[in-house]
Amino acid sequence: MKLFNRTNSLLAGAGMALAFLALASPALAEDKKTDKPKPYTLDKCIVSDEKLGEMGKPFVFTYEGQEIKLCCKSCQKDFKKEPAKYIKKLADAGKTNKK
Prior knowledge:
Structural class: mainly alpha
Largest sheet: 2 strands, antiparallel
Number of helices: 3
Strand content: 5-15%
Strand order of the largest sheet: 1-2
Distance between the termini: 75 Å
């Protein structure tokens, strides 16, 4: 009888673990969808307004889910000082591009 109870306990635990995984997997799949950052749509550096590519390969990174492209790595220092300013500038430029 003790073996039967122990087996039932193990099966119940395994069933609960499978149920948890089944419920968690759609949430994990949604997280994977949001991993890709929003694309940077401008052809200029958001900091210096230099055309991207004129100073070599652009410096690319992600900030809070938004891809950022700068003309050079040194512009990142200015971006980090006032990121909200540059994100707003990017958003405003996106609005004018849609019109």
